[in-house]
Amino acid sequence: MHAFGADFAAPSGYLNTPSMGIPPAPVAAAVAESVENWRTGASRPGDFDEYVARSRAGFARLLGVEAGRVAIGASVSQVIANVAAALPERTRVLTAEGDFTSVTFPFAACGHHVTEVPLDELAGRVEGHDVVAVSVVQSADGRIADLPALRAAAEAAGAAVLLDATQAAGWLPLQLAWADWVVAAGYKWLLAPRGSAWLAVRPDAQDRTRAVAANWYAGEDPWATVYGLPLRLAGDARAFDLSPVWLAQVGAAAALEYLGGLDLAQVRAHNVGLADTLLEKLGLPPRGSAIVSLEADPDRVAAAGIVSGLRNGKVRVGFHLYNTADDVERVLHAFE
């Protein structure tokens, strides 16, 4: 199908973007070409620096920050480890109850005191905590954090804020330059291959972040830091770079440039319009999110031709660029 200026091969009924996004044709073609170059010995390691720079810049644009504030990585938990490992012992971390464990586990594994509270109470419970770590959009059910309230509460309490934008970036317009750290994985709403992730670091938070996987690519000039000491990391957020997953960065560069050319307000209107239409037709109140969690028989949903996720015992569906009203009707059919 053709949608938002690109061709997609997503089958009808594919509503599993919160688990894995479907790339537009140019993204898949870029990765396929890179695989062919690899297969035929036409690739050189330095060729991929261009793609890393493009994906870094593309992620920065989506958040409204400078590219020098963005580090590349491979997964959300891996990039968050740079934050969790740098915090003083037994730091008091506040998070949302039931948030994705890639957000919370790095802090718990470092021995910090992590407190979970209901998402709608988060802003009101910031006082007494050092760091707030939360997903912008909850993975399990699509609830959206009240970022203005959280920002105000964190500033009043002097708490740092880490946001996971994995389930938000790509459909929800974001301006997150105010957060100390913002992370996201690329293989869901950003339509990139798995193995691409990013960490945006506010300049005054860089000294509160540790390069736990310091490596040659994190050097000021990566090709000059391949051998030998002393430690010489980049002066900006590239100090936290992981050596890139090449094919993932090729796809991410193309995907983020494509998304960066869209009006995300229109994308949100499209996605949320479908999700809220589904809820309305089921007699449920709108939620204003692209992700919907439903009490439904997963076998009946699958029999209706719907590809979905199962989270916390509920069927989870997500609407993105390639979904249409026909997908809403397929879900409704499972409830007949």
TrEMBL record:
SUPFAM superfamilies according to UniProt: PLP-dependent transferases
InterPro entries membership: Aminotrans_V_dom, PyrdxlP-dep_Trfase, PyrdxlP-dep_Trfase_major, PyrdxlP-dep_Trfase_small
Keywords assigned: Aminotransferase, Antibiotic biosynthesis, Transferase
Domain Aminotransferase class V residues, every copy: 127-283
Molecular function via GO: transaminase activity
Name of this chain's protein: Aminotransferase class V-fold PLP-dependent enzyme
